[in-house]
């Protein structure tokens, strides 16, 4: 079997591109070949030149702001089985208007959570409910990259004996990184390791962290202010799990923003690092239950209390890691790829 995957952000720093890369790895493990294209012209050329059994379209509204119609017209010409992955769902304005064209194709639609499914079915333009499938977010296998705690901590410039709270991911206002920094600053004996990368579409978000926390201006490389270390360079994929595994806990103190419903890929990456994970009770983590510890809000006092609770309760940390390990096994990328192949089969591939 050979599949064509449409991902306009392929090759750029983007969660959708990362998802596509992980999915391709899962498909490859099952013996399924795939090609990735980004533009409507490439879609047409690839469909004319290659022999494909189906198409996977990775959808996020802003990625198709100008070219959605051209892409769908190219697909209409060949009428291959089509599966659209809606990485977020929104009914507002021009985003909801895209549904008119997406769901007219009769394609099968994949979402990552029950909340996203409910949101799509509540819209004026909605997909065929019988063709709307939940495939949970996948988890990578980072275990081969883990190293001795002392060794990895030394690589990160962290003391081996400190209790370290880590944050990893692109900087964005709704992720409430300043709140996490303020929480850590209130906790003697705790360190924060904040790896907030610069996203090309929101480069000012990192500087906003410094302003909101009253920190000195950032410098290239490693910035340490008191008990908090901040790093903003991209973290290579092969080092991602290794760095997270060296933390004592990983915190994702997100707040809800806008009306969009999506799933945090970073939460599943953190769980795959076999560390206790602290989140808020927002929709981005709605499919996670006993795999994470959830707090009611990203308020610094609430975060500080949860961090101290985890620091003082080794049994709770071990229980969270054990639950996470079971989810990582269930949601491995080859298993996610198997679910996609099942949907493609139902679509006629």
Written overview of the protein:
- This protein is of the alpha/beta class.
- It has two domains: 2-138 and 332-346, Rossmann fold; 143-330, Glycogen Phosphorylase B (Rossmann fold, 3-Layer(aba) Sandwich).
- Helices cover 40% and strands 19% of the residues.
- It has helices spanning 15-29, 40-49, 68-76, 93-102, 114-121, 149-156, 177-185, 205-213, 237-245, 265-271, 300-312, 314-330, 333-346, and strands spanning 2-6, 33-37, 54-59, 82-86, 88-89, 108-111, 132-134, 163-170, 190-197, 222-225, 228-231, 249-252, 261-262, 277-280, 293-295.
- The strands form three sheets. The chain has a seven-stranded mixed β-sheet with strand order 10-11-9-8-12-14-15, with helices on both faces. The protein has a six-stranded parallel β-sheet with strand order 2-1-3-4-6-7, with helices on both faces.
- Strand 1 (2-6), helix 1 (15-29) and strand 2 (33-37) form a beta-alpha-beta unit.
- Helix 7 (177-185) packs parallel to helix 8 and helix 7 crosses helix 11 (300-312).
